[in-house]
Amino acid sequence: xxxxxxxxxxxxxxxxxxxxxxxxxxxxxxxxxxxxxxxxxxxxxxxxxxxxxxxxxxxxxxxxxxxxxxxxxxxxxxxxxxxxxxxxxxxxxxxxxxxxxxxxxxxxxxxxxxxxxxxxxxxxxxxxxxxxxxxxxxxxxxxxxxxxxxxxxxxxxxxxxxxxxxxxxxxxxxxxxxxxxxxxxxxxxxxxxxxxxxxxxxxxxxxxxxxxxxxxxxxxxxxxxxxxxxxxxxxxxxxxxxxxxxxxxxxxxxxxxxxxxxxxxxxxxxxxxxxxxxxxxxxxxxxxxxxxxxxxxxxxxxxxxxxxxxxxxxxxxxxxxxxxxxxxxxxxxxxxxxxxxxxxxxxxxxxxxxxxxxxxxxxxxxxxxxxxxxxxxxxxxxxxxxxxxxxxxxxxxxxxxxxxxxxxxxxxxxxxxxxxxxxxxxxxxxxxxxxxxxxxxxxxxxxxxxxxxxxxxxxxxxxxxxxxxxxxxxxxxxxxxxxxxxxxxxxxxxxxxxxxxxxxxxxxxxxxxxxxxxxxxxxxxxxxxxxxxxxxxxxxxxxxxxxxxxxxxxxxxxxxxxxxxxxxxxxxxxxxxxxxxxxxxxxxxxxxxxxxxxxxxxxxxxxxxxxxxxxxxxxxxxxxxxxxxxxxxxxxxxxxxxxxxxxxxxxxxxxxxxxxxxxxxxxxxxxxxxxxxxxxxxxxxxxxxxxxxxxxxxxxxxxxxxxxxxxxxxxxxxxxxxxxxxxxxxxxxxxxxxxxxxxxxxxxxxxxxxxxxxxxxx
Length: 762
Prior knowledge:
Layout: H1 2-26, E1 50-56, H2 63-66, E2 78-82, E3 86-87, E4 94-102, E5 108-117, E6 120-125, E7 133-139, E8 163-165, E9 171-179, E10 186-193, E11 201-202, E12 208-209, H3 254-257, E13 275-276, E14 302-304, H4 326-332, E15 339-340, E16 346-349, E17 355-358, H5 364-380, E18 387-392, H6 397-405, H7 410-417, E19 419-423, E20 432-433, E21 457-458, H8 461-478, E22 483-494, E23 500-511, E24 516-526, E25 546-549, E26 560-566, H9 570-587, E27 592-598, H10 606-611, E28 618-622, E29 638-641, E30 646-647, H11 652-659, E31 665-674, E32 685-687, E33 695-698, H12 699-704, H13 720-730, E34 734-745
Parallel strand pairs: 13-25, 14-21, 26-27, 26-29, 27-28, 31-34
Antiparallel strand pairs: 1-2, 1-4, 3-10, 4-9, 4-12, 5-8, 5-10, 6-7, 6-9, 10-11, 14-22, 15-20, 16-17, 18-19, 22-23, 23-24, 24-25, 29-33, 30-34, 31-32
Protein name: Beta-1,4-N-acetylgalactosaminyltransferase
Domain PA14: 37-206
Catalytic activity: an N-acetyl-beta-D-glucosaminyl derivative + UDP-N-acetyl-alpha-D-galactosamine = an N-acetyl-beta-D-galactosaminyl-(1->4)-N-acetyl-beta-D-glucosaminyl derivative + UDP + H(+)
């Protein structure tokens, strides 16, 4: 009865508080919520710790799911402290709320980063007032996002904007974390000054302090707990918007609209850099290849800044990016990525008679033993709740009847009533160390056919900035005070470790008049004898040797011919036409042509559909003539061998032009294949790393390697793209390979396609 009475009283307190909230809310506009905080007196003795609130036995992976807990945020199961903003209790199904103050070690502009498994949010105020909190960085919103310990660059949202802080001030912060019953539970916040070469370091006890002292307070004492924008629970009726899909690739990126900025005429760039002979060592012209061996000679492209083509939302199905044994990752998670802090028995003293005892953390050996046990339990379902049953007690018939009379089921609770039950002690304040983890740095530019979620290689920021700085010096030398750099939109690198590296620079420049211009140019950085690329040449002030790779330039006005073979795919032909119309409306680009090769379609009049469209140029070719007609296309235009079921990003035509260089380079963009039921706005799927069927190449270059192999691949599909790739490479060309943002292959049924026939039931 005492337990039941306590529960009723607890609910009364909770409901009373809820009623107070609603009454207070009614005083304001229905759509406006204001923080509710009672000012607390801060003491210097509070330094070295932060407040930690734990909400146990609550499933889910997202912060929004934590906020659905009836006791959140005022009535946590446990209120304690933590000495570092890096916590790993090695437990399941819980939520954490850590809050207090951050004390900067110097004046300056800081970047903050957060990593966690699963979702987390880091909020920081503009000052010591909790009312001024702003969301600075987070891991996910949907519950599907997670990172390894120290992995701060997986999602665009993990790193904050620059935040100016002053050493003599303190700043209120709040860190919220949700963990489910899988993976390696952890959450950490790191910071660094905005300086090239500086790295993130976890915020430790020297730079944090308590918001208030709680050890002497009872559970129902909640007036001191800050109710902030970070912890506010939005009523269901006010959160009707559908949560975003959570894919960073869908974020707005300057690359997506940069094609709309006027292009800086390459004539004005003449003389900025000297010309130089360009003959990459990786060209294999005349090299005898075995059938389909060319795939081994294609390398990936490095990009800057991060274009987030890594499919982080699909890594629950494929964790190949982490380069670990899949079974080990599934069973033990990332426990080997962190180092637990040593156990300490500290007694934190305050002025007056108040004392708080910090529970000692377990040793590494003890922790690892428990970690293995917990993970085994998760895998094999040996533990079904947070209780461990130690030993059986003797039967007592009378007691059993008494319990049964109070509503307990003999069958359901037999095990509970006949065993002594002990709850496992959880080290909620267990902190750890983790170095920043840059998994991109461990990759090579070889194509990994077994990993279809990785995305583009990332170019180091220091290298990208060095190249841009060197180029801008040359530009300003020829045009003093005429151009300023507004933004680095995109840099792509093709390394040649023997002779030097080629870069594609895409820079947003502003003229003295205020007009923005788009600079898109290939440059070459020669390798010197005494350096790898990342080292300065003979001193810190030595400049990189930049030049124009002779005859390696792109043509902004080149016509792009989209070649699409079809047969009885009326609805997809119509969709393709609509997508191409959208490209035309968005860009106004008239220098492209749609050529549909019709293999005797009977389900639509393709010619009529094209006539009714807004496309500037098109042509339908009967399959008897098929690729023979292509030979009459202008030699100095680009042929793009296309698929019917493609969704194109807005700047796709320009992207094809930039990556097709006559006599030098063809372009094979990597498309993302959407799963069944997925859409471009909800892009679940994987990168088609094996396929080279989507290919752009100059007509003259296609002619020089013998054109399409229509003799061998007249009435069958499979291997024709790899066979063409072999001949392109043997012809002395290279192939640019790039994961392309928002470039999708729609999922579609194969029923009735090409030579597939219906099997009749008899």
